[in-house]
Amino acid sequence: MTGNTFGNLLKITTWGESHGPAIGVIIDGCPAGIKISEKDIQKELDRRKPGQNKLTTARKEEDKVEILSGIFESKTTGTPISLMVRNKDSKSKDYSKIKNLYRPGHADFVYDKKYGLRDHRGGGRASARETIGRVAAFAIAKKIIPKIKFSTKLISPTEKEIEDVKKQGNSIGGLIECVIKNVPAGLGSPVFDKLDAKLAQAMISIPGVKGFEVGSGFVSSVMTGSENNDEFTTKNGKITTTTNNAGGILGGISNGMDIVFRVALKPTSSIAKKQMTVDNKGKKKTIEIKGRHDPCIAVRAVPIVEAMAGLVIADEYLIQKTVK
Ligand SMILES: Cc1cc2nc3c(=O)[nH]c(=O)nc-3n(C[C@H](O)[C@H](O)[C@H](O)COP(=O)(O)O)c2cc1C
User: Which domains are seen in the chain, by residue range?
Assistant: First the structure.
């Protein structure tokens, strides 16, 4: 089965299903001698886990990381790093009633079509629990690029909107912005491996992400060239630009300005409101999804967006070291 591995030199493979015994990641290509502890990895995972405030799902996922390989006496050894988190708060019976029903907006129908069967418990492989592996890997990626700083935040909606839709048994979408600082000029490659193309793939691979834009993005389609161009200048002997509509990337290569991109997430598809659907025999049914779902997945996607950005940048940093 393909599609579970991401990256070129720094490669991650995530594994596991939402309600299986455990979920995790294998990270290959990490240089030896990088200092990393279980605590560093746990810190990232704690940012991702649900149940931290009333705006997220009530699932209590402890998400305690276990290091299985590749790290010895708190240093990477250069061999594959394997990280695992045991699944503890899975309530598979929440899913037994809708076992044969296709949830509108979820991946049930397409998994059945592709594989002929599926693990229906908790969304199986399509569950956002898969992203635990990405966030755990980010803790390691960060150590490869210690000078590069990530700042990621939810732009919309506000708390009140989320509370209102939750009361109505409904959900809402959201927008996240990520700014990456101290990126040296020269990361990324022309044509198919453009840095913005890699970021786009990384972001759209996050469950529920439906839009990506870099710099002035979609707004650039209604701008003039003179409005959108970032004029070059020199500051403290360094070539820079006066504005940053390019979002730090030109021709697929970082230009030394902050990398700025935004990601749009759809509203959670699993909602308590009654909806029309069909079962796996095509018979018309109604569905009300009673499980513990996030009313706005964008709230919890913030550290996942940051993790994927970090994995792309660390990979590109290692690639650039082979060039120059
Ligand atoms: C942090 C996070 C939490 C999510 N939680 C839920 C959830 O509780 N219920 C749900 O139906 N979808 C949830 N999703 C979204 C689904 O995993 C996603 O919609 C599904 O896999 C179908 O993929 P697609 O939306 O990318 O097409 C979540 C996504 C993220 C990033």
Answer: 5-323 (3.60.150.10)
CA-proximal residue: ligand 1, atom 13 (nearest): 268
Q: b or e along 249-284 (b: 16 or more beta carbons within 10 Å of the residue's beta carbon)?
A: bbebbbbbbbbbbbbbbbbbbbbbeebebeeeeeee
Ligand 1, CB within 6 Å, residue ranges: 57, 106-107, 123, 126-128, 206-208, 266, 268-270, 293-294, 297, 300-301, 304
What is the model's pLDDT at position 290?
Answer: 82
Low-confidence ranges of the chain (pLDDT < 50): none
The minimum-distance atom of ligand 1 relative to the CA of 126 is 21
> What integer pLDDT is reported at residue 90 of this predicted model?
67
The answer to whether 171 and 268 have CB atoms below 8 angstroms apart is yes
Which of 14, 45, 294 has the most ligand 1 atoms within 8 A of CB, as the residue to mutate? 294
Q: Of all atoms in ligand 1, which is nearest to the CA of residue 294?
A: 8
Could you tell me the distance, in angstroms and rounded to a whole number, from the CA of residue 47 to the centre of ligand 1?
17
* Residue with CA closest to ligand 1 atom 25: 208
The residues, any chain, with a CB within 8 Å of residue 238's CB and separated by 6 or more, are 256
Coil, helix or strand at residue 212: strand
**Chain segment 50-104, per-residue pLDDT in tens:** 776 667 776 677 899 999 999 999 999 999 999 999 998 766 666 788 899 999 9
CA of 190 to the centre of ligand 1 (A): 32
In tens, the pLDDT along 242-259 reads 999 999 999 999 999 999
Distance CA 133, CA 25 (A): 5
Residue 266 CA, closest ligand 1 atom number: 25
Strands of the 174-181 sheet, one edge to the other: 149-156, 174-181, 259-265, 209-214
Asked if 48 and 300 count as a contact pair (C-beta separation under 8 A), the reply is yes
Q: Are 283 and 276 in contact (CB under 8 A)?
A: no
Alpha carbons 120 and 54: distance in angstroms, whole number: 26
Q: Which pLDDT score, from 0 to 100, does residue 75 have?
A: 98
